[in-house]
Amino acid sequence: SKQQLKTLFESDAYTIGTFKRASDYWVPLLGLFTGAREAELCQLEVTDVRQDQATGLWLLDINSEQDKRLKTDTSAREVPLHPNLAELGFHDFVNDVRKAGETRLFKDEERNKRGEFSGFSKRFNRYKEDLGIKSDIYNKLDFHSFRHTLQTLLFEAGEEEYVINALCGHSPAQRSEGVRTYSRGPGLKAKYEVLLKLEFGIDFDKIKPNGWTPTLSPINNQD
User: Which pLDDT belongs to residue 44?
Assistant: First the structure.
């Protein structure tokens, strides 16, 4: 719900800036604005954040290059970045990681034996539960809920299902014959304009830009 989103992103951790890992700060924000899956974000490389030459828009290039994995073939996609992310310092963060010579955006996040980013998942679930946001028999509330929220808000805004599917990496359902035959789907600018319609009810002015500080000791991803 919008109230739960306010609780998540207007907490002391975001407004004061108490996160100890870049991923704990950025991955939920990226999930909120892109609807991307947890693993798609945790495995991002620095080169996956780039500017489109034709439109000038910044985007996430979600792909299976190098050692990255995708859930399905249709999961590969380009997702434009919402301007709120730039205002919160995302591009500055990416540039700092690039200058440090790192290839991965969130280098401390590693897969477990099942291929999952369990360390991040455990920390996020603990974070939201400490804020009183817990699953019950009617609703499962986890990182995947950001995808459902984005899709629901865009449906309520009157967006076409095939556009929402293109943003979230679902199979291209509900497309007309003409779209299926002659179009590769909505372009980057069209997807960007759709994302601008999102209204989460969060006061982003309260959030501390790039509000995290690295720990001095080695990170244990299972904590």
Answer: 96
pLDDT at 102: 95
In the chain, beta strands by DSSP E = 49-51, 58-62, 77-80
Q: How confident is the model at residue 215 (pLDDT cuts 50, 70, 90)?
A: low
Reading the block at residue 216, the tokens are 């001095």
d(CA 218, CA 223): 12
Least reliable range by pLDDT among 32-36, 159-163, 188-192: 159-163
Report d(CA 184, CA 202) in Å as an integer: 34
Q: How many whole angstroms separate alpha carbon 27 and alpha carbon 25?
A: 6
Q: Is 198:150 a contact under the CB 8 Å cutoff?
A: yes
Sheet holding 77-80, edge to edge: 49-51, 58-62, 77-80
pLDDT of residue 220: 46
State both tokens at 71: 């859930």
Q: What is the widest separation between alpha-carbon atoms in the chain?
A: 57
- Look up tokens 């997702």; give the residue: 79
The b/e string for 165-176 (b: 16+ C-beta within 10 A; e otherwise) is bbbbbbebeebe
Which amino acid does the sequence have at 63?
N
Q: How many residues are recorded in the chain?
A: 223
